[in-house]
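Example 3.2
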Amino acid sequence: MSGNSFRIGVVFPQTESGTDPVAIKDFAQTVEALGFNHILAYDHVIGANTASRPDWNMPYSHVSTFHEPLVLFSFLAGVTKTLGYTTGVIILPQRQTALFGKQAANLDNFCGGRLQVGVGIGWNEIEYEALGMPFTERGERLDDQILFLRRLWTEPTFSHTSKFHRLSDGGIKPLPLQQPIPILVGGVSQAALKRAARLGDGWLPVLPATAADEKIAELHEAVHAAGRDPAHVPLENIVFLGKTLGGPVRTAEDGAADAFAWKRAGAQAVCFHTMGMGFASLDEHMALLRQIADMLGLKQKG
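Structure, written as tokens:
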């Protein structure tokens, strides 16, 4: 399954990663050496204290470790050579668009043009509150942000006026190596799928492999309806092996079977989520990923 037609990635185990920079560096370098194409990292800035929220039923809280993805990737870009990086997803409407665009452009330079930006609207209202951004209209704001970022990443200077953005003849430097940086739209809702079809360079959902054929066809239909070419809007799915979202713990064999199913259906990539497996160290994550790499026939390096 090696080669450029179908990419295999790894979800960085945020909540189980710890804070030791040496261990995190070793994880990224091992993933690269095993032949995986990229690392994907989730984004949460603020965790809610569940002690004051007895009805909380979401997967993360204030005790969940989350490294900021762009900072994390900037660190890893300096210790890897071929590994790609995907934000999956940056909760973009709670961030200042121009500042995020500047940071992503820097990162794209630091990692040699190996960045993909996955974006979504998020679900955690406390984060919007803490970052001073409105929780309402976040879908409409995200649409506008995608359009603004594409201009910011490709035009040395420009003027722009829209509902959520205003720029009077200015620009960023350096521009990213990729002009523009690919933007994947995250989420499993119909709104997310249609946003990907209209505006995205891809769709980044979390779906079971049993739905692969159906969802690929649904995406292609939406892309055609938006007047675009489905070849330019691929699907990249996240494969859950752990029980972070309440599902069962699954095996390396299950993950490999999912990857083959998504490849047959016409997806461009899968990324393996190994949190929630009961692991106590990054070494255990790496051992499972080594099994998966062997099963998929990834071309190992070194």
